[in-house]
Design brief:
Helix content: over 70%
Shape: elongated
CATH class: Mainly Alpha
Structural class: mainly alpha
CATH superfamily: Multidrug efflux transporter AcrB transmembrane domain
Largest sheet: none
Radius of gyration: 20 Å
Length: about 130
């Protein structure tokens, strides 16, 4: 059972790191395009673009792992009682990591990067129109 958790944690951390790298690259690219006009809306769009680039690879990874482990979960043959405790946490964890990597990670990334953006009072502009 612990082997399943170790494999799951390794895969989840690796895909999380790759997601953050993609988000960072998109933010840098958008910041270079917009220069000093880079604002919160640009940050949101950059995060969406970066997350969208990772959507297909992450879904394919999860689908492949789940599809390969489902026969183990359904098996009643010899050795299945040893393999089921390995497959169970990996299947559940991969599905939850799909949600975490594609939704939670970009939201937290956006929240942390938004704190670094200058507010309108810091740039000398007035919010009153």
């Amino acid at each position: 059972m612990w082997v399943g958790y170790i494999a799951l944690f390794g895969t989840a951390v690796q895909t999380g790191v790759v997601m953050v790298v993609y988000l960072e690259e998109r933010v840098k690219q958008r910041r270079a395009e917009r220069g000093s006009a880079f604002n919160y809306e640009d940050l949101v769009q950059a995060v969406k673009d970066g997350a969208r680039l990772r959507l297909r690879p992450k879904v394919m990874t999860v689908a492949t792992i789940v599809a390969s482990l489902l026969p183990i979960m359904w098996s009643h043959r010899q050795g299945a009682e040893v393999m089921k405790p390995l497959a169970t946490p990996v299947i559940g964890g991969m599905i939850s990591s799909l949600v975490h990597i594609l939704i939670v990670t970009p939201v937290i990334f956006l929240w942390l990067r938004a704190r670094d953006l200058p507010t309108s009072s810091e740039t000398g502009k007035s919010n009153v129109q």
